[in-house]
Amino acid sequence: MADIQLGNVLTKEAMILDHTPFNSKEEMFQLLSEKFFEAGVITNQQAYLTALREREAMGPTYMGNLIGLPHGRCDEVVKSGIAFCRCSSPFLYQSCGEEGDVKYVFMLAIPGNQSADQYMRVLATLAGLLAKEEFVDQLDSVHSYDEMLALMKACS
Amino acid sequence: MKIVAITSCATGIAHTYMAAEALKKFCKKNHHECKVETQGALGIENQLKPYEIEAADLIVFANDVGISKAERFDKYKDKIKKFSPHDVIKDPSIILK
User: Fold this and answer.
1) How many whole angstroms separate alpha carbon A141 and alpha carbon A124?
2) B16, A64: Cβ pair inside 8 Å?
3) Which residues have C-beta within 8 Å of that of residue A17, sequence separation ≥ 6?
4) Helix, strand, or coil here: B36?
5) Is B9 assigned a catalytic role?
6) Candidate from A108, A121, A132 with C-beta closest to B14
7) Structural domain range at position A110
8) Which pLDDT tens digits describe chain A residue by residue (156 residues)?
9) Residues of chain A neighbouring B10 (CB-CB closer than 8 A)
10) Which of B3, B4, B6, B9 is catalytic?
11) pLDDT (0 to 100) of residue A7
12) Architecture of domain B2-96
């Protein structure tokens, strides 16, 4: 994966390390969607939140291994984005009838059909990385945005 | 064992590609030949060829939206096992159970 692509999609403003565990998934949704909005990834926070919640209603986004992978796809996403939040300790993530401890949240902003961009491949690559131990096992050792980019690049 | 699979999901990004990777990793670890076709937001990729479908011992459908070009599998219904991509991600070994 080329640096420029990764750097364009992993949203710097939406990477948070060692956040206090969230009281709920919804609290995390609010924070990360706000970051997407501030970074210009989405043009309307409410519309994106609705897309996230609609996806949650269709099936769980708790992926095991301390990972939550919420994602929303709508036309108010104007560029592909990945938010990453690592919590200082796990919080209870409830998703469509499933629940589990989540420490690592990857939130995807997926452009709708009207706004599809050339970076959607990066979102797909990130989803694949989450199935790889060599990536997931290193998530605790990342200290900065640049180290996260390097880890993603090394594992993809 | 020769395994072919198709993954797809509602939003076409997250589960499709994570399930594909989980299947490939599981098969590699357990020494099964494996090819995974993804039907996601990037279109159909790594499309299974007729001879690969015919030669497969197991055909895995890991989908929660309809499979495109499903008629390719009409002759091999007895080899098909169906799962949700979510279940495959959480435990890929279910494909052999």
Assistant:
1) 23
2) no
3) A86, A142, A143
4) strand
5) yes
6) A108
7) 3-155
8) 566 688 889 999 999 999 999 999 999 999 999 999 999 999 999 999 999 999 999 999 999 999 999 999 999 999 999 999 999 999 999 999 999 999 999 999 999 987 778 899 999 999 999 999 999 999 999 999 999 999 999 998
9) 55, 58-59
10) B9
11) 87
12) 3-Layer(aba) Sandwich (3.40)
Domain boundaries, chain B: 2-96
Q: Are A14 and A35 in contact (CB under 8 A)?
A: yes
Count of domains observed in chain A:
1
What burial letters (b/e) apply to A80-115, b meaning 16+ CB within 10 Å? bbbbbbbbeeebebebeeeebbbbbbbbbbbbeeeb
Say whether B13 and A125 touch across the interface (CB within 8 A): no
Q: Do B10 and A129 touch (CB under 8 A)?
A: no
CATH of the domain at A90: 3.40.930.10
* A58 → chain B, closest CA residue: B10
* Element at A141 (helix H, strand E): none
Question: For the purposes of burial, counting CB atoms within 10 Å of the CB of A3, is it exposed (0-12), middle (13-18) or buried (19 or more)?
Answer: exposed
